[in-house]
Structures are given as structure tokens and as C-alpha cells.
Write a structure and sequence with these properties.
The structure is a single chain. The N terminus is likely disordered. This protein has a four-stranded antiparallel sheet, covered by helices on one side. A two-stranded antiparallel ribbon has the order 1-2. The chain has two domains: about 120 residues, no CATH class; about 110 residues, Structural maintenance of chromosome 1. Chain E (Arc Repressor Mutant, subunit A), CATH 1.10.10. By secondary structure, the protein is of the alpha+beta class.
Amino acid sequence: MEETSQGFLFHLPAFEGPLDLLLHLIKVNEVDIYDIPIALITAQYLEYLDLMQELNLDIASEYLVMAATLAYIKSRVLLPSQTDLSEEETGEDPRDELVQRLLEYQKFKQAAEQLGSKEILGRDVFARSAHEEIEEGEGGEDIEASLFDLMEALREILKKVETQEKLLDFTREKISLKDKMIEILEKLRDVEYVLFEDLFSGSITRFEIIVTFVALLELIKNQKIRALQIQAFGSIRIYQREEPL
């Protein structure tokens, strides 16, 4: 982490890759992986890329390559050139190669997750403590929230503050990342968990929300806290780890 005249510059490792982001967007939008609405997915992919840059997450070159790939596919789908006509006549779709990559990656990822759940609990997967049982008969295992799950929830928080922020006249104050990390841990001190959105209660500027979010990522990376969902795309609960790994 570096501090600049414009605020904090955060250097965090990439948590997941561009194919993970695409699969996330496909699931969030509830679209058919075999019929990807390329214009919509490309627009949302670029929005995520902008947010990752604002968060100063280390963006691997693969993200930029995928952005260029999506833009190319979009141009071929929306504005087919004369050279593409022969492909269209044979039934080839510009999205086919991307779809195959996604399917193969999804199959590989699911297989890896199944193997991981059997043998390496305690090394890469976190053991559940007694108080983390599913409540009120909600079956299944808690799901570890991914970076993109967290970013999706962050986008909802930012949407709410944008209108409010425009109405306020404020001077940006220095906000310490360390203080935000301590603040999050304090909120978890005497409770079982805190809802993701409650971590941002009282934050009135986009800048403060961004710092709080990066503090959350730092705590997750340092294995101080966990972010869990009872079901895919459900509300995110933040738990403090009882024991270090």
C-alpha cells in the first residue's frame, strides 16, 4: 500500500481470473451460456474492470486481453463484415470459441472444487466452527463469497451513495486503511456475524466506501475474517475467524 496526494494506492493480488468474472456475469444475469448476450456482458465486464482499477487491484494482463476479445466478438456479432458471411452461412457463431473456453474452464473448476472438498479441508478450505451452522433449516453448505460476489454487493452500495454524494458539499478527509480494518474487527467483536452492507453504514462518500471495501479484502487476505453466503447470490455475512490457520 502506498499513500499519494490523491489518496491511497492499494496493491492487492488478483483473486480470480477473467473467465471467473465472465461466468459470474452469466450467472448473475441468468443467461444461457450457449447464447451469451455479448453486448450486455461486454458492457458489464468493462464496468467491473473500471471498478477494479478504482480499487487498485492488480489487474493481470489476461483481463485486458479478454476485454479486447469481447470487443472483437461484439463487433463481429453486431457488424458482421463481408469476410464473416461465409462463416455465417456455415452456421459458425463468433461466440463459439469463447463458449467452449468457458465450458472447459467451468468443468475444470468444478472438478477441482470437488477434489478440494474431499482431501484438503484445513489447507485451502476453511473448517466450520460450531456456531456457523446453517440457521432456520437452510440446507447445504455455506459458500465462500468470491471477489466478484463482493464486488457485486459493493456496486449496489455505490449506487445508493452516488445520488446522496451529489447533494453534499464535503471536503475529503484522510481515511486510514488500518483504522478501517480495526473498525471492521470491532464491529465483529461481540456478534456472530455482520451483514456486508452494515459495514458501510454511516459512509457518505464513494471514497470512504472504497477504503472500507479494500480494508475488508485485506482482512480476508490476511485470514482475519471470512465472507460467506448461505446460497449463491444471497446476502453476504462477514465472520471473524476464531483461530488462525
